[in-house]
């Protein structure tokens, strides 16, 4: 467990939240503006990285994984994909914590948003972070073959951010900010879209 504040992790979380918001504005309000969805591809790798750090840093892993799954369940009526990305992040975290069951978690990831692609991308980022940034980058690029020629390829734009040594000195995000923001901002966008 590591409780020291990390400007790098805080920066990655900020980028993840901002690019996710841009992506969802594109999805709910401006579907013809492809640039917003392209920018949004940066968000998912940021959350995978944050999940790696969250899994490593948490003092109470049971509470951490419970929050992810509970948020996934509470967000189901709001998110475009019923088995939303929170379930994928939970499965990825479980595979980091209980490595001997990785294959089981990988198979379960097929039913979640981003499917096996997201799960393997998470492990590519783990390899990039913990072992070799060059090998991890190569694995992340190979993982893109699972989605073919799609805008998901732009997720690779996040990799320089993930391998940087230091982050920016941004305001520290409140501890549970993401857990509130994730469903709330989508609900606001849904209400706005319905009123247009």
Secondary structure blueprint with pairings:
Layout: H1 7-28, H2 34-40, H3 43-57, H4 61-75, H5 85-97, H6 102-109, H7 115-130, H8 133-143, H9 159-163, H10 177-195
Helix pairs in contact: 1-2, 1-3, 1-10, 3-5, 3-7, 4-5, 5-6, 5-7, 6-7, 7-8
Descriptive notes:
This protein is mainly α and 196 residues long. Helices cover 67% and strands 0% of the residues. It has helices at 7-28, 34-40, 43-57, 61-75, 85-97, 102-109, 115-130, 133-143, 159-163, 177-195. The longest helix is centred in the first third of the chain and has 22 residues, at 7-28.
Major beta-sheet overview: none
Structural class label: mainly alpha
Tally of extended strands? 0
Compute the separation of the termini in Å: 47 Å
Question: What share of the residues does DSSP label as strand, in percent?
Answer: under 5%
What characteristic shape results from the CA principal axes? globular
Radius of gyration: 16 Å
Helix share, percent: 55-70%
Could you state the order of secondary-structure elements as H and E?
HHHHHHHHHH
**Which runs of at least 5 residues are low in confidence (pLDDT < 50)?**
none
Count of DSSP-assigned helices: 10
Summarize this entry quickly.
With 196 residues, the chain is mostly helical.
């Amino acid at each position: 467990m590591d409780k020291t504040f990390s400007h790098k992790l805080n920066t990655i979380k900020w980028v993840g939240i901002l690019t996710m918001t841009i992506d969802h504005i594109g999805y709910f309000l401006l579907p013809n503006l492809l640039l917003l969805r392209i920018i949004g591809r940066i968000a998912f790798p940021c959350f995978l990285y944050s999940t790696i750090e969250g899994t490593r840093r948490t003092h109470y892993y049971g509470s951490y994984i419970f929050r992810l799954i509970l948020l996934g369940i509470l967000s189901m009526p709001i998110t475009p994909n019923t088995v939303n990305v929170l379930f994928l992040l939970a499965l990825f975290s479980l595979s980091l914590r209980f490595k001997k069951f990785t294959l089981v978690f990988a198979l379960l990831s097929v039913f979640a948003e981003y499917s096996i692609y997201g799960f393997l991308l998470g492990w590519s980022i783990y390899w990039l972070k913990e072992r070799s940034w060059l090998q991890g980058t190569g694995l992340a690029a190979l993982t893109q073959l699972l989605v073919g020629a799609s805008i998901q390829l732009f997720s690779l734009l996040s990799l320089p951010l993930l391998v940087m040594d230091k982050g920016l000195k941004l305001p520290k995000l409140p501890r549970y900010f993401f857990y509130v923001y994730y469903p709330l901002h989508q609900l606001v966008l849904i209400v706005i879209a319905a009123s247009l």
